[in-house]
Design goal:
Elements: H1 12-15, H2 21-34, E1 40-41, H3 53-63, H4 78-91, E2 101-104, H5 106-118, E3 124-129, H6 134-141, E4 145-150, H7 161-167, E5 172-178, H8 190-202, E6 206-210, H9 226-229, E7 237-242, E8 255-258, H10 261-273, H11 280-291, H12 295-316, E9 331-332, H13 347-358, E10 360-361, E11 363-364, E12 374-377, H14 382-399
Helix pairs in contact: 3-11, 4-11, 5-6, 5-10, 12-14
The chain binds pyridoxal-5'-phosphate (PLP).
Length: about 400
Amino acid sequence: MARAVTMRRISERVSGIAESATLAVDARAKMMRAAGRPVIGFGAGEPDFPTPGYIVDAAARACRDPRTHKYTPAGGLPELRAAIARKVRRDSGQQIEPAQVIVTNGGKQAVHQAFATLLDPGDEVLLPAPYWTTYPEAVKLAGGVPVTVMTDEAAGHLVTTEQLEAARTPRTRVLLMCSPSNPTGAVCSRAQLEEIGRWALDHDLMVVADEIYEHLVYGNAEFHSLPVAVPELAERTVVLNGVSKTFAMTGWRVGWMSGPRDVIKAATDLQSHTTSNVCNVAQAAALAAVSGDLSAVHRMRQVFDRRRRTIVRLLNEIPGVHCPEPQGAFYVYPSVKGLLGRRPASSLELADLILDEAEVAVVPGEAFGTPGYLRLSYALADEDLVEGVNRIAKLVSGRL
Ligand code: PLP
């Protein structure tokens, strides 16, 4: 008789995390496309542009140089760390040195590494919701406890110090801030950042500031870096950033953490045992990106801005959908509460229905801690964007 298998095979730590909802939606859309279905994808947070030519050329040259065929120091190529420090001084106005930078495998590894470096078991992390889907899982993997802080749609989904204070406990150690935000595109003003930063300082918290969308702000909105808005906070703030979104380099996998020297040193020790260094050729590409000017991103931003206005207008024409105009990143986060009833009963079900019947991929608000919304990335071709929203409108008028 076969013996019952009682052995635990997957650790509680890993079995406790959820698959990335955004990557899952994107993978499903790609599978349907491979099977011949004309799926339009609003799922992935990925610019549709190719990486600018001068960056690709730098990588091609690096490929042919045998020096690039070797490991780099775990923290990154010294010239890249120096160039990132210069770029931070240029773009954010924060005075940092190369020793305050570690190069990571994309912004996502920077997120994981920040929490792994800062948290002890049971430490609580305040996550304003809607939050990017990876944050709670990264906190849990690091032994921490994610604490969702609900924001108000009427206040543009921007967290207030009152909401943060209501969620604070003696175990609170870290505050996560993401501005411009994924998924809402909300951008904190300097005054809001100052108030939140002072509150974090008063309560002796560490802060992780995800600034990966720093260059994607529209209209009158301005990006401000948290440790610049509140300089006293610099000694307790880890900033996350990378080339993925700014330079259309999602596939190259280069990001970084910058912050206090002791945190960066500890993160580098950790990375020396996990991934060692980021691909040397990709670092050469990132060096060209951060050393060059910002004209390529300015051009992409103009295109995103046009699409932003188009998608907001089209979505608001659908009865039951309410889409505020976001000020940053390349996402809209419309409320679809007006479309929910017996079926679909949730934004999760609605997203499935839209994919199955309209062949359009969107991410449900459940993935960001706030059911009742959908996230659509507008980093796709204008014609696809119009066609995709029209398909949703048709589905809604015919079925719901
Ligand atoms: N941070 C935020 C807020 C993001 O939206 C993303 C990607 O979607 C990342 C970090 C990670 O970017 P990557 O790992 O592609 O560099």
